[in-house]
Amino acid sequence: MDFVQNVIGEELKIFEKKFADSVKSHAPLLDRIMKYIIKRKGKQLRPMFVFLSAKLNAPINESTYRAAALVELLHTATLVHDDVVDESLERRGFFSINAIWKNKIAVLVGDYLLSKGLLLSTDHSEFEHLRIVSEAVKQMSEGELLQIEKSRNLNLDEAIYFEIIRNKTASLLSAACGVGAWTTSKDDLITGKMKAFGEKVGIAFQIKDDLFDYGTDDVGKPTGNDIKEKKLTLPLIYTLNNIEKSKRRELINIVKNENENPKKVKYLVDTVVSCGGIKYAQDKMYFYRDEALQLLYEFPDGDVRQALEKLVRYTTDRKY
Which domains does the chain have, with CATH numbers? Predict the structure, then answer.
């Protein structure tokens, strides 16, 4: 993403060093695990949103670096815990922490990352950072529990779906944009606007992830992972609510009882595509993306705003 590197490339380099320092421990085992986590880190989208949201108002400062580290620490903690909850053995092509060191250590590592984030804020009396990000962590837990509850009876309510992804996925991106803006503006109105911007980007981001499960020309080969995990994503919800009852019962049976059968999963995917589920989800994704951009356009034009716009478009145009 050259467009981001051109605007905050130096800041991201400094952040990598600061983040590595922030997770150092006196326990040799923890240090080994922290090095493993840093080595396999993802695209760092959330720190990018923190820095760009900050720089949209004024130059990045030390508080911004701590805010980005806080977001990344808490995000990493939730991923480690998620892998335990989901019994996942892989993340981003690497073995998960629980796959290598087992569940007990993985849970403790997640707790350690969480505590490091809390201390990073309290040690510098940055309680607004803590308030913004802690609210997101609360929402993420609520979203995950709501998804577990609703997936048991395959709830087909689109409003519930959006409540889940707003809490589970969009809340942390909202916090990243909000806390970034706060570090340079100290303005509640600007912070609130950037939180709303981040939430809309996060919703669009999650719908894009949903689409990867079904495979179109835009997203490549279908994975069917969400179907195997009985997750009700937007393309499937739309399809189940817009087909005849007998066909709906057939698809629900596949999700409940035959989700490991490749032929049945392919049949379900083909049905979702032919019934317009993909098109409907794409339209919703672009709706939330465009709402986010309308909020962004309320800020003065310049390199930072343009980089943020490109980053938003990247979240919906990405191929993985």
Answer: 2-317 (1.10.600.10)
What's the chain's length in residues?
320
Give the C-alpha separation, 318 to 218, whole Å.
9
**Which pLDDT score is estimated for 216?**
52
Residue of 284, 293, 287 whose CA lies nearest to 312: 293
| Nearest by Cα to 180 from 93, 299, 51 | 51
For residues 180 and 52, the answer to whether their CB atoms sit within 8 Å is: yes
Q: Return the amino acid letter for 237.
A: I
Give me the helices (H) in 220-276, please.
225-228, 234-240, 245-257, 262-274
For 262-283, the pLDDT digits (tens) are 898 889 888 999 999 999 999 9
DSSP label of 95: E
Average pLDDT (233-250) is 91
How many Å apart are CA 96 and CA 193, to the nearest integer?
A: 36
Q: Is the pLDDT of residue 155 over 70?
A: no
Q: What are phi and psi of 152, to 5 degrees?
A: -65, -40
Residue pair 64/183 in contact by the 8 Å Cβ criterion: yes
Q: How confident is the model at residue 156 (pLDDT cuts 50, 70, 90)?
A: confident
Q: Is the pTM of this model over 0.85?
A: yes
- Between CA 164 and CA 34 the distance in angstroms is 30
Token pair of 126 as six digits = 């940055």
